[in-house]
Every structure is written in C-alpha cells, then in structure tokens.
Amino acid sequence: MATTTAATFSSARTASSTLAPVTAVARVTGHANVELADGRHLALDGLFVATRIHMASPLAGQLGCGFDESPAGPFIRRDALMATTVPGVFACGDAARPFGNVALAVGDGALTGVAAHRSLIQGL
Questions:
Q1: pTM as predicted
Q2: What is the pLDDT of residues 89-103, one digit of tens each?
Q3: Which region holds residue 64: left if phi is over 0, alpha if psi is between -120 and 50, else beta?
C-alpha cells in the first residue's frame, strides 16, 4: 500500500461531470484508489503525481545564487552557458531544472563542465 500525504486533488470528475473542489489526499491504496480527506473514495485507472523538490544543500543560497520558482519548487537560476547569478559559479542537473530527469542532468553536467572550463581560459 502506498501512502501519499500533503497532496491535493483538484480535478476529480463527479458523476455529473463537474469538477469537485480541491481536497487533500488522505492516502492512495491498491492500484490507484484515492481516499480524500473528506472521506470520499475515487477508484481511478491511473494516477500521476508530481512531488515538490528542495535543495539538498544550502550552498547555492549561501553563495548568493539566484533561484527561480516552479510548481515543483525552487531551482538555481542560470543562463544558457550554465552560469548562475554569481560570477564563476555554474549549476547543472536537478538543482538547476524545474523537474528532475536523469538524461537531462547528465547532458547538463557535460555542458556545464565545458562552460566552466571555457570560463577559465583567457580571452573566451
């Protein structure tokens, strides 16, 4: 049995095809059965969830890096060359993307390494 807390359910269609009010999810059981905090039960065919993220380390904030906010949580602001708002500080991966993705994080790491290397070479 999976348990989900602090989530909200905002698009449950009732028998009359109207939207139900936003209600907290008490738990998810079985395949995709949702029990709402108000006691209602919804048997669904599938369920997609998005979690909130937070920085695993306070370092970027301590260095003064700017952050952007997304529906998933804060992420480090950077430009196309992976540079943050602090000169000489670069960011990549899940810390610098609104949603985590392994393949994109790997690509970000390679691009960020090149950008950091280029920033150390005189005249580039």
A1: 0.63
A2: 999 998 999 887 899
A3: left
